[in-house]
Sequence to fold (311 residues):
Amino acid sequence: MTLEQLRIFLAVAEMLHFTRAAEALYITQPAVSAAIQSLETEYGVRLFHRIGRHIEITDAGKLLQGEAQKILDHVELTERGLKELNNLQRGELKIGASLTVGNYWLPEKISQFKQLYPGIFINCQLGNAEEICEGTAVGMYDLGLVTGEIKPSLQQSLEKNEVGSDRLQIVVGKSHPWYQRGEIYLDELLNTNWVMRESGSGAQQMFERALQSWGIEPSNLDVVLNLTTSEMVKAVVESGVGAAALPESMVKKELQLGTLHSVQIIDPQKQSTKKLEIVQPVWKLKHRQRFHTRVMVAFESILMQDNIQVA
Fold:
C-alpha cells in the first residue's frame, strides 16, 4: 500500500466515479482503475461495488476511507512540520554556557533570537567552562559559550570564535582595607586573603594566567576559600572575606551600590602608569564535524551582531 494508492482511492471514494477522480488527480482513468484493483487484489476485499456505470463504496471501502484520510492528514502535518523547521518556524537549539556567560550575557541574545524566531525552543544548560567544552565536544550542546581556555585535547574537535568579552575586576567588600583605595601595587596581591572559583572556571583560568604574565605564581596567593559559583564568591566577598577577581558584568550593580569596590592594579617596576587589566573573551564553540542546522546558523548571526565588550 502506497501513499499514491491511498490518494487515488480517496478521490474515487469521494466522487464515486473513476473518470472524474482521474481528472481531479491529472492522471489517466486506467491508472485509477489499476490502483484500485491492486489494493483489492492485495488485501482480498472489494472496495467498490460496480453497478452498471455506477459504483458504490463497500464496508471494507468505508473502513479504508476513514483510516486512509487519517494517514494522509498525518503525512500532511509531517510535511508541513518539516517545511516549517526548514524555515525556522519550529525546531530546537541546545546551548551550553558557563555560569557567568549564561547568567549575565546570554539572556539578551536569547531574547533577541526569540523575537525573530518565536517557534524555536531553546534548551540552555549552565556549567563551568570545562564542563561546557566537554559537553559540546560530545554533542550534548549544539553551541557552547564560555570564557577561559579550551583543553588541548578538545581543540581538534571544537571550533571557537570570539563573540564578546568581559573584564575581570579585583573587588573587595566594605570592611576590606582596600575599599578606600583606587589603586594597589602588584605585589600587594600577595598580602590579602583570596576567595576563588574552582579550577574549571573560565574566570579562574583567566585570573591565574594574568597573574603568571605579571610574574606572580597563583599558588603564592593566600586562598582561604574555593567556591563553585561566582555568585557565592561575590556574596562572601561582600561580607568582608578577602578579595576576588570577578567579571565586571556580574558586579556592575554592586559597584554602583557600593557594596563592592574595585581596585586597579599598577606595576611600580614599569615606567608606564598604565593599569594592568584582565580581559577575557567570550568564546562560541561548535563541533567541527557535526551537522550545523539552520537554527544554529541563525543563532550564531545573533551572537555576531554585537561582538563587543560585555560590560
Remarks:
- The first strand starts at residue 48 and ends at 51.
- The chain is about 45% helix and 25% strand.
- The first helix runs from residue 3 to 15.
- The CA atoms of residues 17 and 53 lie 9 Å apart.
